[in-house]
Structure formats: C-alpha cells, structure tokens
C-alpha cells in the first residue's frame, strides 16, 4: 500500500510511527510512504488522516522500483558519470580483462569515443566449464588502475555473494549478469552495498520477474539500480545469438523510474549486427549502451565474434548520440 501525504515531513512522521509499531518493509520517497507488507488500510490507523492526500491500494508488487511509488526518474551519480533522465551513457571495454596493457588501451579508445564507464570481466560465467573463466583479483587490479589512469568509472561483473566484498574493493559499479538475475542471495548482497548496480535481464525473464529482481536489491537499501536489456533467448539462434527486445524499452520507461540501458553486443552476437541493434535500442528510448570492444577480435579470449573494433565503436557512438538527441 502506498500513502501519499501532504508533504515530506508528514511522510517522515508516518515512517517514524511505523517503526515504533515494528512494521517491516516501510519505505519513503518524498511525500509517499510505501508499505510492502500491508494490504488493508485498517492496519494504518495511527496515520493522521488530515495529512493524507491519497491511498493507493493497487500497485505493482515490485513497489519501490515502480513509478507509482517513485514518479521521478532516478539519477545515479558516480565520480565520472551521471546516469538516468535525459543523460545518455556510453559504456565500453573488453569482454574479459586480458592484461594491464590491453585494458588500458581499450579504455583509451572508449574514453576518446565518449564513454565514461570502462567495462570488463575478471570473473566470467561460461557455459563450458573448461572455457576461460577470467583472471580474478589480478584482473580487478589491472581494471582499477586503467579506470583511475583514464578518469573513468569501473564496472565489472560479480557472480557470487562470497565475492561481493572483494569486487567491491575495486569496482565503482557492480554488474549482475543474465545468469544471475534471479540469484537472490547475490541480489541481497549487492543490495547491502552503497555502490550502483547494473542488473541485466535474464535470458528468459519476464518484465515482472526482472523488476522483482531489482526490488530484491532495493529492499536491502540500495536503490542505485539500472536495468539493461541484453537480448532474450528465442527460437532462431542460427542467425542471432539472442533477440533484442526493443519493445520492452518503452514499456520499462513507463513502468519504472530506473535508468534503462541496452547491450547490443550480447543481443546480436556477431559484430556486423551490433550497430543496427544498438541504434534500434536508442531509438526506442534506451538511456545508454554497453559495447564490447577489442583491437583484435579474432584473438579475444572471450566472445571475440561480437566485439567491435575501436573504430567501429566510434561510428556507433556518434550515430547513437545523434539518435538520442532526436528522441530526447
């Protein structure tokens, strides 16, 4: 249940009262107070009805991440990026950290193209257990040095609750990959951190399942969440690795206040189609793109087939920015 109060002070009074009654899962956004566990307003008899503007009994189950509770766009501020609203964010880097020299070189290319966030994986979830799994903490160290040298934010994937503290020592933004979207222990763990979280859509997840995963993070206190569409599993994998669900982007812009970004690299799966897929996502309203790059894609340790060269990245980012400006 969401109670709209006359002002922020009245809303905070309600939160304080709720805590004195030992009510759980009570949240406030400006003059709105959300009660995740309460369905009947009779349980809220302690509220001064003269201060109540509206009672919203019907709202999404993923309450905190909904626009019903939080009408305004969330803005996430990091050292080098402002994410959300009318901003357009470019994220780029190698799929996997391969060496200190390589991540720095790719970071230089990414920054020159306008990216403010340097991505890269030191822990890699692979379908084949014998494939390259990442360099672990050594990769995190090289990644951190490159980001600091270039004045960029660092973003990397975390795969296990046990790794959250270690990864958190290095990264500016936690990435939750598609295979971990419903790893609830991991979602709770990053929800207890004070750093932004990028949550990718599960490859077969519905919109409600995706938003509920974001709610898991928010329920632990961390509301610095951004969502990333990265393509969903469909029936035609001969030509497409995944299918970019472009139509979900405007749906999410309507349902949630969280920033919505897109990953055309994983959606397309082959470099020749990454640009077109990414531009379609921007035209649909994506507030940012994440691109995998490599100077020698055929020699990449992971997913070289879908990696753009730095030159291809520049072309994509220029077109994407122009389309975003038109859509905005």
TrEMBL record:
Q: Which UniProt keywords apply?
A: Transferase
Q: Can you give the residue ranges of the DAHP synthetase I/KDSA domain?
A: 80-319
List each coiled-coil range: none
EC number assigned by the record: 2.5.1.54
The family database entries (Pfam families) matched by this protein are listed as:
DAHP_synth_1
Q: Tell whether Transferase is among the UniProt keywords.
A: yes
Protein known as: 3-deoxy-7-phosphoheptulonate synthase
Source organism (scientific name): Weissella sagaensis
Whichever gene encodes this chain, its name is aroF
């Amino acid at each position: 249940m969401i109670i709209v109060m006359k002002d922020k002070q009245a809303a905070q009074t309600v939160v304080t009262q709720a805590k004195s009654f030992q009510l759980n899962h009570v949240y406030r956004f400006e003059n709105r107070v959300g009660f995740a566990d309460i369905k009947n307003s009779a349980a809220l008899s302690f509220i001064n009805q003269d201060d109540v503007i509206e009672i919203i009994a019907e709202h999404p189950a993923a309450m905190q991440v909904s626009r019903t509770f939080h009408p305004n766009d969330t803005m996430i501020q990091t050292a080098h990026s402002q994410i959300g609203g009318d901003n357009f964010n470019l994220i780029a880097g190698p799929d996997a950290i391969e060496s200190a020299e390589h991540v720095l070189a790719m970071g230089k290319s990414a920054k020159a193209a306008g990216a403010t966030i340097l991505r890269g994986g030191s822990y890699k979830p692979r379908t084949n257990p014998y494939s390259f799994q990442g360099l672990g903490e050594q990769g995190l160290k090289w990644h951190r040095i490159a980001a600091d040298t270039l004045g960029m934010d660092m973003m990397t994937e975390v795969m296990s609750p046990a790794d959250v503290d270690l990864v958190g020592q290095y990264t500016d933004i936690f990435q939750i990959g598609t295979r971990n979207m419903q790893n609830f222990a991991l979602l709770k763990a990053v929800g207890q951190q004070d750093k932004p979280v990028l949550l990718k859509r599960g490859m077969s997840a519905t919109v409600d399942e995706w938003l509920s995963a974001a709610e898991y993070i928010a329920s632990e206190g961390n509301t610095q969440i951004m969502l990333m569409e990265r393509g969903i599993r469909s029936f035609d994998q001969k030509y497409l690795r995944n299918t970019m669900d472009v139509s979900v982007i405007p749906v999410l812009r309507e349902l949630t206040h969280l920033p919505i970004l897109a990953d055309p690299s994983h959606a397309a799966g082959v470099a020749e189609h990454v640009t077109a897929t990414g531009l379609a996502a921007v035209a649909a309203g994506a507030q940012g793109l994440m691109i995998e790059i490599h100077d020698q894609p055929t020699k990449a340790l992971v997913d070289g087939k879908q990696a753009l060269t730095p030159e291809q990245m520049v072309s994509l980012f220029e077109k994407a920015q122009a389309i975003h400006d038109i859509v905005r």
